[in-house]
Design goal:
Layout lengths: L10 H8 L10 E4 L3 E7 L11 H18 L1 H15 L2 E8 L2 E4 L13 H12 L6 H15 L1 H19 L36
Parallel strand pairs: 2-3
Antiparallel strand pairs: 1-2, 3-4
Helix pairs in contact: 4-5
Length: 205
């Protein structure tokens, strides 16, 4: 994570305290990257007549999600504005009922990269086969495929990175109040090895 981005360790707790009671069944799932916070909450399922088929349940779920989206729009915009100020990221929303999930407007962020010929040929094959409309679509498709089939490995990787961050935070800290003001016998010169050194209206309604 870039050093200038605020941390999100307390994000889930902040949302728990900030979101209105009764919006979701339990705590929402929260996904964070460098640009966006995605909040997806479970809504209470609508009650249908006994014997209603799967299509009826799906339609009722989508209707309730749409109603939630419309009725909470203004308040979600305000929560997103506060979260963006606090955490330096845009906020997107979604809701689910059982297997039915809908994400409201989310960010689409361009990611620039350089590919060699063999890598470009992979994308062009996907385009020529009609799997994707463009190289950009093909690259997004490939990333989605990796996420789907390597999900466990990616979760393990994220867990390992979190463990490294925790260990780094627990490491020794230079005490500037120590005798000598934390300076060495070079008169305080820096160590040569030391480096020295989202908008509210797009709150995804």
């Amino acid at each position: 994570m870039p050093a200038d981005l605020p941390g999100t360790d307390d994000l889930a707790s902040w949302l728990t305290g900030r979101l209105p009671d009764g919006w979701f069944v339990g705590a929402p799932s929260v996904t964070v990257d460098r640009e966006e916070i995605l909040v997806v909450g479970e809504l209470p399922a609508p009650t249908l007549d006994e014997g209603a088929d799967e299509a009826a349940h799906s339609a009722a779920a989508r209707g309730r999600i749409e109603r939630f989206r419309e009725e909470t729009r203004e308040e979600r915009i305000e929560v997103a504005r506060q979260a963006e100020h606090r955490y330096g990221r845009k906020v997107a929303w979604g809701a689910r009922i059982g297997d039915v999930e809908e994400l409201f407007t989310t960010l689409s962020v361009p990611v620039m990269t350089r590919l060699r010929q063999q890598e470009r040929l992979v994308l062009d094959t996907l385009v020529d086969a009609g799997v994707a409309r463009s190289r950009s679509d093909a690259l997004a498709w490939a990333v989605a495929l990796v996420g789907e089939h390597a999900g466990t490995w990616l979760e393990d990787l994220r867990g390992a990175m979190s463990a490294v961050d925790e260990l780094r935070a627990k490491g020794p800290v230079l005490d500037d109040d120590a005798p000598g003001g934390g300076q060495d016998d070079t008169g305080g010169a820096p160590d040569p090895g030391d480096g020295g050194g989202g908008d509210p209206t797009s709150a995804q309604g």
